[in-house]
Amino acid sequence: EPEVTQTPSHQVTQMGQEVILRCVPISNHLYFYWYRQILGQKVEFLVSFYNNEISEKSEIFDDQFSVERPDGSNFTLKIRSTKLEDSAMYFCASLGMVNTGELFFGEGSRLTVL
Amino acid sequence: EDQVTQSPEALRLQEGESSSLNCSYTVSGLRGLFWYRQDPGKGPEFLFTLYSAGEEKEKERLKATLTKKESFLHITAPKPEDSATYLCAVQAGDYKLSFGAGTTVTVRA
């Protein structure tokens, strides 16, 4: 069964450091997403990406965040200067058809900022 | 702003004890309502999409229904493997899902 894969599964970093989280979406999907979940809280939308550009982003997705699809398979989330409050589980998701809502989520990357 | 409220926060059931989870929502222009299952430390797993009031979907022991203001996820004769957090989400725009906080279901054998 096709799946979304994410690396690393857990990253610990110092405040102020740059972090890149990587995702390999399902190969024939066209829409890509990052969500995050702070421990004990809701899953929150960060950004959606389609046709090599951001299609929508939330208020959380400020200038310290960026996304990129550097090649045909990877989709990355970069956090330029991490803050303590960025500690969360970050989920990548991909979608084949925009109106189905059937997002396929990866297992997540747990980011701990010290 | 889209609002999704799930109740109860937690539900403890005996194996075989049927129950229902509630998801109430406020959204401008609902494009779809979705149910996901999330196991601890894992990503959400898609269960159902509902598009219009009156619609119902079933999968094994789960049945989802939709009205104009809320959705219910009915769990019939649950088993311990149904223990998980069940997430409700709504789609208003083209791309973004807004999730509720979830209901954590624990089924005891």
Spatial shape of chain A: globular
Distance between the termini of chain A: 37 Å
Helical proportion of chain A?
Answer: under 10%
Tell me the fraction of residues in β-strands of chain B, as a range.
over 45%
Mean pLDDT of chain B: 94
Structural class of chain A: mainly beta
Largest sheet of chain B: 6 strands, mixed
Amount of beta strand of chain A: over 45%
Explain what this protein looks like in three dimensions:
The complex is a heterodimer of chains A (114) and B (109). Chain A is mainly beta. Helices cover 0% and strands 50% of the residues of chain A. Chain A contains no helices and 11 strands. Chain A has strands spanning 5-7, 10-13, 19-24, 31-37, 43-50, 53-57, 65-68, 75-79, 88-95, 104-105, 109-113. In chain A, strands 2, 4, 5, 6, 9, 10 and 11 form a 7-stranded mixed sheet that branches. In chain A, strands 1-3-8-7 form a 4-stranded antiparallel sheet, with no helix packed on it. Chain A is globular, with a radius of gyration of 13 Å. By secondary structure, chain B is mainly β. Chain B is 0% helix and 58% strand. Chain B has no helices and 11 strands. The radius of gyration of chain B is 13 Å and the shape is globular. Chain B starts with a strand and ends with a strand.
Structure characteristics:
heterodimer, A: 114 residues, mainly beta, seven-stranded mixed sheet, four-stranded antiparallel sheet, 0% helix, 50% strand, globular, B: 109 residues, five-stranded antiparallel sheet
A few lines on this structure:
Chain A is an all-beta fold and 114 residues long. In chain A, 0% of the residues lie in helices and 50% in strands.
How are the elements arranged and paired?
The complex is a heterodimer of chains A (114) and B (109).
Chain A: E1 5-7, E2 10-13, E3 19-24, E4 31-37, E5 43-50, E6 53-57, E7 65-68, E8 75-79, E9 88-95, E10 104-105, E11 109-113
Parallel strand pairs in A: 2-11
Antiparallel strand pairs in A: 1-3, 3-8, 4-5, 4-9, 5-6, 7-8, 9-10, 9-11
Chain B: E1 3-7, E2 10-14, E3 19-26, E4 32-38, E5 45-50, E6 56-59, E7 62-66, E8 70-75, E9 84-91, E10 97-99, E11 103-108
Parallel strand pairs in B: 2-11
Antiparallel strand pairs in B: 1-3, 3-8, 4-5, 4-9, 6-7, 7-8, 9-10, 9-11
